[in-house]
## 1
Amino acid sequence: MTMPHTPARKKTASPAASLWHWFTPTYFRAVSGRVTPIALVLLLVTLPTGLAYAFFLSPPDYLQGETVRIMYIHVPSAWLALALYGAIAVASGITLTLKLPMAGHFATAASPVGACFTAIALISGSLWGKPTWGTYWVWDARLTSMLVLFFFYLAHSAMTQAFKQQERGQQAASILAIVGALNLPIIKWSVEWWHTLHQPESISFINPSSHIDISMLIPLGLMTVALFSYATIVITARMKLAILQQKWQSLLYQKTRNRS
Amino acid sequence: MLCVFLALIRRDMAVVLRNGQLSSTLSFFIMVVVFFPLAIDPASLDLAAISPAIIWIGLFLAAQLPLERLLHDDYQDGSLALWSLTRAPLEVIATAKYAVAWLTASLPMIFAALASGMLVYQWPMDAILNNMLTILVGSLLLTLISLLTRCLTLGSRGGKGLIYLMSMPLSLPTLIFGAASLRTHTPTDLNTSIDTETTTALILLSLLLLATLIPMLWASTLALRNAISHQ
């Protein structure tokens, strides 16, 4: 087993070695020291302006009235939940194939954050559904797949904590994450067997003629940036904590071994 | 390799038959299936309409049981680690465990499910082949998911809740297509479309099994290898 806190490998000119260097805890600490202040500034700028825009400056919807303001929380959280699951799946692939320790730390750190944002998306969605659809919950394809995603997140984060050895938990969780990522399209497709009530996306990254007004797009963008920078700060901090814990544990192990 | 596979199956079958696991899984399933109508007023409801849900939940819960002993005991006493040192690939060991779990738990349950469907929920007699195929394919899928979750949690501190938390979302497509392809009413001339719908669901369920069988066995082997290397 390679100890993550061992100094970076000998410097060689090959690009593969420098790529490896990128993923070492030493390098991560240096990068996170620079990323966290930037993300913090972004959060402090975009969150107040985004909230002010969302709640006061943007117009109410002509159909839904004031309740449309839930969208500025609901949509960015849902995007973040999906993006984090994708990132966890990629990191899990790296954990299983290249065995880079930082990838496992990332997946461990990101999954409770993703679970929280999935929960926020579900709760805000059901609160939005009551005035617009007349019900808190419907067994619609998209709602059900979000609920399943929430269960996946719970299982994944429980898995990372379920073993005495951190590495074993991370490997088991990464297998689960990859199987889950391959299964989510099947699940989505299978629950679409029922008639769907959810409205189709108003914003499409592929379709250029997205029909949402700029006065709603600005707060949505601001809130998305705010939530993404918040997630960056929290995940970076949790990853740093994981590195320190592992270091502490190995020091403790050495100390007890020297004594005996 | 086939020799190893058969020897493992014979050994595990003997273990299962000796410690009475066969009857415990079966009686658990029958208990679930029989308990549901007792909790509902049977006169007021169309029991046949909700029978697919009951049968599938029973199959799902019972499918989690057999691999607990089969894998966990061999992991604890080091048999799995010893077998992994032999020339037999771990894939063969995982497949043998899968086969034994299905043969000892799901195969008897297919007949129990059909019998309870006929007797308790008044399924039509002419749908017996369709329903048998459905439960056969579905139970193969459920055991496969159970194999993966059991291999992943070998030696974990997490309780049984973790198993169900993991297998519930993974079993969702099986549950949906399986419930849709059970034929619970006698088709009349008016609703022949129901027949084509159940057939479509059965085909989708079979496709799901064909698509996931090899990847899931492979993922289980990977999980098993991880578990053994960290023992």
## 2
Amino acid sequence: MTGQAMPIPPAPPAARPTDWTEEISIFQPRQAAFWLFAVLLLIGGVSFVNEQLSFANASTTAWLVGLVLLALYAVPVYLLVNAVDLFEREPRSLLIGALLWGAVIATFLAGHINDQWASILQKVFGAEFTRTWGAALIGPGVEELLKFLGVVVIYLIARAEFDDVLDGFVYGAMVGLGFTVAEDMYYFFAHFVGQAGASDLGGLFEGFFTRIIVGGPYSHVLLTGLTGMGLAFYVTRPDVARSRRVLVAVLLYAAGVAAHFVWNSPLLDGILGDSPGPTDWIAWAAVKGLPFLILLGVLVRLAMRREQRWVREALAEDVAAGVMTAQEVDVLESLRARRSARKAVGARTGPAGERLVARLQHAQIALAIASTGTEADRTARIAANRELIGGLRAQLAALPVGGSPAEAQAPPTVFAPTHRAPVEGLAAWASPDPAGPSTPLAGGLPLEIVARVADWAQVRASNGWTGWVDGRRLVSGS
Amino acid sequence: MTEASNPTPPPAPPAAAAQVARRVGGAFDPATRRQTVIVAAILAALFFGTQVLDEALPAAASPGEIATAAGDAVPIGDGWQITPLDGWVASTHDSGSGIRLEQGVVVVDLFPEPSNSASELAQDYLDQALKANATQLTASDIETATEPGGPAVRFSYQGIFQEADGAIEGEVTSIVAGGHGVVADAWSSQGDLGSALGEIHQMLESIEAAR
């Protein structure tokens, strides 16, 4: 079925802030915020380049090794943050802009303003107080504001790209990642290699342990992720009363500042004892940072569920019309399930089938995105995606399975049970992801294994129902 | 020509600057112009405002503060003297020997010590003053430095000390001339020393024997 004959659903109401079809680059000369960003990047860039050159001159080896060590942290975090954004990936230029704000602009401004505030604190409260509490008061106060304003600037440059709370997390995390990377390189040289650059790689690895292994999970990615979600909640939820949006934004900003304060403050330093070892440092960091990391994880999960709900709504009509199955919609909701579905088909039809399923999944997401759009060509986009999905299905069906063409995605039509559910029963999921809701299967239920992915088994019942179960618990024989 | 037929003079043209501003402002999306100006104003207030506030506040008087005018040399002891840069507050050290220079969270302790070798002086300071009081300490190799006051060496360290909260980072410079030495220990909480090292090195270059 191509779906060409299907009616195009009406565009979502204007109040719904989910036009995922927008794809905006950072180059927006009509936006004053773009020029503010450009000017600050130019000014901060001079300072940034000079600082990196001074590090490289002090010890080229240490600088290069430092870059590699930072990449070991930054690349997975970048990919992880993007992976959270399951459906509507943010434009790369905006993500790079957010990284640059954190790494170049915010660090440049913070370096100057932090020094000024340290001097002010000393004059008002004295040197001892400033030495003890300066980092805890100045860092959160100044740095969180500078990074938060970076997310605001990205928003002002490309407002249409802020569709949901999750986008605030993505841009906030990117600003935080940029800040962390630049700050860590500074720390590597200032505290572990030495400003004079003794090429002390041992010091560099010590810095890597302290800054990345111990502090990495609780870095600026976490802090600005929280504050960015607050901004996004305020600007993307017109359905919520303004006073409540302000309250949520303020609370999330306060959470980011509080996390930074707790991290920088001497509170709880007693955990370290007189001679702290690696496990003491890791425990110390967990006590200080883990509660905030859990808070962020919960908020991101809630935001992801909200997006998943939108996708279900956007595709409901196509599911009802048979353009997609409900199970395929389930699979779209998790990267792992998408991969498992590709592998399952790949195992039966080879790499060509795996690639076709990947394209099919992209087309299905594009259909959901097109359905949320309000653009003039929305109807054409929806029709084109439906046609593409139909075409890909036809190609999948034509792929040979065990030497004969067959329906690549659909399970065989004749039920041939190979296993049974154990007597105590068995839980089943729509996709190989235990995070989703499960369905109990009665003990002894005859089942046919359709596909296997690691310990997961995709099974079919006599009535055509399919689901994923723990393959290790299946009992052989019908 | 009658008075009635006289043309009404056109309104005065707006000032050129206002015209330019209006043209530039008009080129931007009005939906985000005001918010962008607010962001720019906050950044400017943070950047310049804190500087103005810092300069407006008088330096805090501390016990034992040594009153100096800008450019005045301050005696360290044993004939040594240093010229603090503007913004650095000098006071006599609690130990009774030497002086302390402070700016914000950064401290430079200077102690006169009789010695014939800058390396030995630095090593003694590392062993007897730092290692003896630290619960954890990492120090770089002692390397030759160039100071006008005499032969000098330098090393950096980071550690945890019983009398200080949190991790401390520091840089020690020792200078020796004619059997007299001086140790300068510049330190702060971790993360704050790097940006002050330029000024500290500049002040250390002003150390001279005035005996």
